[in-house]
Amino acid sequence: MYDIAIIGAGVVGGMVASALSKYDIKICILEKQNDVAMGATRANSAIVHAGFDAKEGTLKARFNVRGSEMMEEVAARLGVKYKRNQSLVVGFEHERAEVEAIYKRGLKNGVKGLRLIEKEELQTLEPNLNPELSCALLAETGAIVCPYELCIASVGNAMDNGAELMTGFEVCGIDTEEDGYLIKSADGRVIKTKYLVNSAGVYSDRIAEMTGDCDFKITPRRGEYMLLDKECGNFTERTIFHTPTKMGKGILVSPTVDGNLLLGPTATDIEDKEDTSVTPEGFATIFAKASDNVANIPFNKVITSFCGLRSVGSTGDFIVKERNGVVTLGGIESPGLTSAPAIAEYVEGIFKDKGVLGNIKADYVATRKPAHYFSTLSMEEKNEIIKKDPAYGRIVCRCEGITEGEIVEAIRTNPPACDLDSVKRRTRGGMGRCQGGFCSPIVVGLIARERGIKFEDVTKFGGGSIINYYKTKGDK
Amino acid sequence: MSVKADLVIIGGGPAGMSAAVAAYDAGIRDILILERDTSLGGILRQCIHNGFGLHRFKEELTGPEYAYRYELMVRERNIPFKLNTMVLDITQDKVVTAINGEDGLFEIEAKSIILAMGCRERPKGALNISGTRPAGIFTAGTAQRFVNMDGYMPGKKVVILGSGDIGLIMARRMTLEGAKVEAVCELMPYSGGLARNIEQCLNDFNIPLMLSHTVVEIHGKERVTGVTIARVDENRRPIYESRQYIECDTLLLSVGLLPENELTKSADISLDRITGGAIVDQSRQTKIEGVFACGNVLHVHDLVDYVSEESEIAGRSAADYIKGKTTTGKDISLITDGKVRYTVPQKISAEENVTVYFRVSDIYRNVRIVVRDGESILVNKKKQKVAPGEMETVTITADMIKNIKGNTLSFSIES
Amino acid sequence: MTRELTCIVCPKGCQLKVELENNKILSVEGYTCKRGLEYANTECTAPMRTLTTTAPVVGGGVVPVKTDKPVPKELMLECMKVINTVRVSPDAKIGDTVIENILDTGANVITTRNVKV
């Protein structure tokens, strides 16, 4: 019997797990995919929003502003890259009134460090912007963070503190019992829990239905992105938004914490909760809209394109509520990443009030070793490590300079990387300009060796994502 | 660990080994080859097909055999090399930073450096193909490594995009190992691969080569389940009505090779926008004195034989540099007309015979290759056919160079 | 009958034109060397190919191999089957014969690198 089961290991579920794992209770995290961070967390804008977008008085506004305040400390504690690079909402002359309206809303939401700026200053700050732009809102608290790294680190921190992660656990039924809930997985596993947190992203409405609470619906909103080579990471220093529309904040241009340039997202509402394909229309939209704000973007430097699904709730706001021991966290679309630590803090409060949590564990560990610590070490420090383990001297991913030691560590550290893409998300191995062309055969070999599985059983991202079918010849 | 060396060669593939042997034979002894892989040979180790060495050795060798001949030459001369060693940085004053498991992170102060890092394949991201991102999309070279080195089959039913030589070679290779190759799609109206490879890799196995076709959409959630291909118009835009679905579990990409010049850039060496490699003179010297480049890091070659030839020039030039020999002569820039896409070298600064390598930008028939010094024609060479996939050469003699009046030589294709 | 061929002897890839009558070669055009003429002759009568592939090594892994002379084109897939059944010694050196006279073609299958590198 678990005290609390968390369904969905995205950044919201992960942050909740991390917050709750402080306490002396039994926690499990149920994830239907092969790894954490596989839904919207994997593919979003990677922005810590300042908090001027959401309408005053909404949950979005509240959690955004609080989350933005918390993020720097949370990222530092969990060893996740975070950079306060500031953001700009830019507008043409005819959009001046909207830019000013956003500024006022930001002030009402309690966002600090907001300033309206004019063309001249804008051009000085960001020389690559479209020279036609005439005004902008500068948000000093605007920041960037790596969303899947934050999720991996928070789940890892929860696991280091005793939480259990069950991957491949696709919840297909929830039975209400007198003292809790029976949660059934499609593969036959069943777990029992006293309380449950529904952070199932685009599926949070389905999970809510299983608990008998179906007063909302989630519509997936497709968001396509393009990622450019690190050569272009300095193309803009700040995150550039255009004045927003009803469908979202428009196509942004932003550096990432890893030094790439990110363009996107598009916004199309769909029914299919799995459709993460990229489209020619998406490419065209990104191309056109990004070029409105930033001139001469080097589109020939695109190294990959992808699509994420935002969970848009039917209420128009985040759906955060508790009933009969079930905490529902639905419709956590943008600014969901920014809000995640604040939502987790709020959920912690709910359980604390219910008297579920009790005391903080004596051996609680608040911090996690930074995922990319090795690359930040000095030559002497690196050599100390290489002397003990030569694997740290063997570069596997040439483009990103990732060593065998770091990859093996990712396979052995909570939450353990178990397929090619999960190694990539943890180490950046295979994420560079050659996109795994050279290193993926080597990484497949390392995963097989570390996990004691056959070479041909290593997948790209679990399930049927087979990389190699069989041995060409020899004893099979 | 901090060491000095007369000559550091970055890369132990065919280019690095040839350069090392040539430098040794020119009298240099303090050489160090740094190779990132587990053995010498570079990409030739996985190119197990034959067709290498016809020029060099007057016989047809497989990739590993060609590499082994050079490895023996390196070993016979006891030229030192470090394996599993990745160079992370080079500076303008020729300090090389490298890492491996035995020595850790270390620096070498070199008198001279030869860049021989080779090239890599253009990845799928650069293509912006719509659809899903399942398993089963590989560059041809990655698939080649899985099949030929690891001994595993990354696909059973295959579509290949791009008809570069590696794509053609892999069409045959996958077929021999039991896969069904449904089609090779080529965006251009001609193949970038060698005619012999179309014959023996596709025609021998009745694999269709679909010219002016591209993949417009990838299907499949976990593993590729199919691709949609389409014919393209003269502007290389897909024609919607010509869309056609092909069921397959694998998409191999053979859409071009890119010289790997990250280190070159880190030393702030100027690159040629077209070749993607350093700008060099006839000795293969880059902007920095004593830093040379050769092989596929300089420009992508079709034949390893030419890589060896070029690398010997770089090796001998590095030896001259180390021994303090300097060349005299004015700088002559080689310029092109667009039909000639690029030349290597890009400039000549010595009065000696220089073989200029170049590629053309389209297929041209019954043309002349013309080299001019202002109005006067130095070379006028008839060709039945020139094609982008086949490197051409022209020799500019020392006499011609001595008598050049201007500061440029212009290369053009004329009818 | 006229047959058009691409010579595969060297990377030049000459386009050959062969005039045939009842499978007898009357004339060959387009070749630029002696080997091109030979190629046209064999290609139109009994096409031959050098087969390159890998062979399994005792204890796992594969080693590249080739036929040391061309084999009849139509036997390539049959040869593959035979090669896939051998087990090469882990001590084999480059050039070692793995299979002698494969399928009575007169060609030996030899390794093209040392198994141990």
Describe the structure.
The complex is a heterotrimer of chains A (476), B (415) and C (117). Chain A has 476 residues and is an alpha+beta fold. Chain A is built from 12 helices and 23 strands. In chain A, strands 1, 2, 9, 10, 11, 12, 19 and 20 form an 8-stranded mixed beta sheet that branches. The longest helix of chain A has 20 residues, at 59-78. Chain B is an alpha/beta fold and 415 residues long. Chain B folds into 3 domains: 1-121 and 257-326, 3-Layer(bba) Sandwich (FAD/NAD(P)-binding domain); 123-255, FAD/NAD(P)-binding domain (3-Layer(bba) Sandwich); 328-415, no CATH class. In chain B, helix 1 (14-25) crosses helix 7 (304-322). In chain B, strands 1, 2, 5, 6, 7, 8 and 21 form a 7-stranded mixed beta sheet that branches. A 5-stranded parallel beta sheet of chain B has the order 11-19-13-14-15. A 5-stranded mixed beta sheet of chain B has the order 24-22-29-26-27, with no helix packed on it. Chain C is α+β, with helices and mostly antiparallel strands and 117 residues long. In chain C, the strands form 3 sheets. Chain C has a 4-stranded antiparallel beta sheet with strand order 5-6-9-8. A 3-stranded antiparallel beta sheet of chain C has the order 1-2-3, with helices on one face. Chain C has a two-stranded antiparallel ribbon with strand order 4-7. The mean pLDDT of chain C is 93. Chains in contact: A-B, A-C, B-C. Chain A binds chain C through residues 472-475, and chain C through 54-57, 60-62, 84, 87. Strand 23 (470-471) of chain A pairs antiparallel with strand 12 (152-153) of chain B, so a sheet runs across the interface.
